[in-house]
Design goal:
heterodimer, A: seven-stranded mixed sheet, B: six-stranded mixed sheet
Chain lengths: ~110, ~110
């Protein structure tokens, strides 16, 4: 069974640009969550989608947005990039429910110059 | 506010030297506690889910236990390949939002 796939694996951008990251969940998983991981803050929740609807949102500015398609694939977008947005962005998928384990992809490493 | 605290931040063991990692949590209405392993450059790999106090789960050299306030990840006779960062997390407020601890970086020397 294929795991969670994230593309691209690495991205280098400059301040002010925007970026779109992609996530393909495990087949049959309809819940997709996004997290930001940095050395200082650890893993922080960005948002969660289920059936193309955002159900939960973390404490990030509106520059961070996402969406989910009918096939459960998800994208997240960051506009007007700042140096502090440099991080590993992780996508996780699960069967719906807080008691279900989330399975993570290997992330997209975003570097802002 | 729901919180997860892991200790120690880093742990160095000799191969075969057993030890335990701690995860303390404060959450209203625990819906599960998750343990993950993360290798450098990789995403977290799911290990265990624990749902109620007294529950135990085992996988190879790892055993996870749960009380009402904390969870332990016991590592028996570790090998160098067990070196990784171990993370624990709890869902917040009955949602899919996971609150993670900062992790314990485990190094096992041969």
């Amino acid at each position: 069974k294929a795991g969670v796939t994230q593309t691209p694996r690495y991205l280098i951008k400059t301040r002010g640009q925007q970026v779109t990251l992609s996530c393909s969940p495990i087949s049959g998983h309809r819940s997709v969550s996004w997290y930001q991981q940095t050395p200082g803050q650890g893993l922080q929740f960005l948002f969660e989608y289920f059936s193309e609807t955002q159900r939960n949102k973390g404490n990030f500015p509106g520059r961070f947005s996402g969406r989910q398609f009918s096939n459960s694939r998800s994208e997240m977008n960051v506009s007007t990039l700042e140096l502090g947005d440099s991080a590993l962005y992780l996508c996780a998928s699960s069967l719906s429910g807080p008691d279900q384990p989330q399975h993570f992809g290997d992330g997209t490493r975003l570097s802002i110059l | 506010e729901d919180q997860v605290t892991q200790s120690p931040e880093a742990l160095r063991l000799q191969e075969g030297e057993s030890s335990s990692l701690n995860c303390s949590y404060t959450v209203s209405g625990l819906r599960g506690l998750f343990w993950y392993r993360q290798d450098p450059g990789k995403g977290p790999e799911f290990l265990f889910t624990l749902y109620s106090a007294g529950e135990e789960k085992e996988k190879e050299r790892l055993k996870a236990t749960l009380t009402k306030k904390e969870s332990f990840l016991h590592i028996t006779a570790p090998k160098p390949e067990d070196s990784a960062t171990y993370l624990c997390a709890v869902p917040q407020g009955g949602s899919e939002k996971l609150v993670f601890g900062k992790g314990t970086k485990l190094t096992v020397n041969p």
